[in-house]
């Protein structure tokens, strides 16, 4: 029995897959504008690589595999010291302070917030600070497995590690996170 060979139809990618790819991305990076950019980058990369498409996977599966690499690259960039210096955020939209800020130096948003959200935000910040204090590989593996929910095999292949090594890294990351959170959040 012959295996069905899939074909590409780039003219239909946006109406067929844009929403799906966006929802997939936003659930992993939680930044609306960055998610849109990554989906756009995915379409652009797919157009550039369409001659390499072998038809073994469906069009959507192929686009998702490109998008996953874009998401991994995004996290690699923001998790490196050089990457943090390159990621800029627009904080003010008008006035004399209008412009982009380097992510590490963005002033905190001081708008009034609901009391219960303040504690959640502080917890999120404390947890993110603890994740950022992990060794780079630990932080990357922890984010990919726990936050982004990548499959073990996918992480191992991407980072060229064994599954037992992955679980050792996850265990060590969780142990260090627990200690960091105990020191910086629970002892407030």
TrEMBL record:
Keywords: DNA-binding, Sigma factor, Transcription, Transcription regulation. Residues 126-177 form the RNA polymerase sigma factor 70 region 4 type domain. Transmembrane segments: none annotated. GO terms for molecular function: DNA binding; sigma factor activity. Pfam families: Sigma70_r2, Sigma70_r4_2. CDD domains: Sigma70_r4. The keyword Transcription applies. Residues 17-77 form the RNA polymerase sigma-70 region domain. Signal peptide: none annotated. GO terms for biological process: DNA-templated transcription initiation. NCBIfam families: sigma70-ECF. Belongs to the sigma-70 factor family. ECF subfamily. This is Sigma-70 family RNA polymerase sigma factor.
């Amino acid at each position: 029995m012959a295996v069905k060979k899939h074909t590409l139809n780039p003219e239909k990618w946006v109406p067929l897959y844009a929403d799906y790819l966006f929802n997939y991305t936003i659930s992993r990076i939680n930044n609306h504008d960055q998610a849109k950019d990554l989906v756009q980058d995915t379409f652009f990369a797919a157009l550039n690589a369409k001659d390499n498409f072998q038809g073994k996977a469906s069009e959507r599966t192929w686009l998702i595999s490109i998008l996953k690499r874009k998401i991994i690259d995004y996290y690699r960039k923001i998790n490196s010291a050089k990457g943090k210096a390159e990621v800029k955020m627009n904080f003010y939209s008008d006035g004399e302070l209008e412009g982009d800020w380097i992510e590490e130096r963005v002033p905190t948003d001081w708008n009034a917030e609901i009391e219960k959200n303040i504690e959640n935000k502080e917890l999120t910040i404390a947890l993110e600070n603890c994740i950022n204090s992990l060794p780079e590989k630990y932080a990357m593996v922890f984010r990919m497995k726990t936050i982004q929910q990548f499959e073990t095999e996918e992480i191992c292949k991407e980072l060229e590690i064994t599954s037992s090594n992955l679980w050792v890294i996850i265990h060590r990351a969780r142990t260090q996170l627990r200690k960091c959170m105990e020191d910086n959040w629970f002892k407030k």
